[in-house]
Amino acid sequence: MGHLSTHVLDTMHGCPAAGMKLTLQRLDGTHALTLKEVVLNQDGRNEGGPLLDGASMATGHYRLLFEVGAYFRARGVTLPEPAFIDTVPVDFGIADASGHYHVPLLVSPWTYSTYRGS
Q1: DSSP code of 19?
Q2: pTM above 0.90, yes or no
Q3: CATH number assigned to the domain comprising residue 67
């Protein structure tokens, strides 16, 4: 049975991005339907487990919106206005609803990277 998960690491402070807000959306042409909004736990993961699993997994196009600027401001980091990186959108596809899709984010106020994790 497939599932979608994420994990965010704060590379500026060398720790999980506890408290970061993220939104999961399903993309349909020009429309984005919000499926879930979560706040990451102390490990930088969704407290409730996978973002999608079982019957909620479906093939298609998705977007994760990571609220990076708000996270770093809450940590006391002084950011310019506007912030260089405020919201990080990661658009990706699920081709196999029975597969495991892990979308990690490594982030600082100045850079980010992502990949399909295991």
Answers
A1: T
A2: yes
A3: 2.60.40.180
Q: Which domain holds residue 46?
A: 3-114
Split into its structural domains, the chain has a count of 1
Among candidate residues 10, 24, 8, 6, the one with its CA nearest the CA of residue 110: 10
DSSP per position, 52-109: EEGGG--SEEEEEEEEHHHHHHHTT----SS-SS-EEEEEEEES-TTSEEEEEEEE-S
Q: Which residues pair with 31 in a beta bridge?
A: 28
Q: Tens digits of per-residue pLDDT, 77-95?
A: 999 999 999 999 999 999 9
Given pLDDT bands bounded at 50, 70 and 90, which one contains residue 54? confident
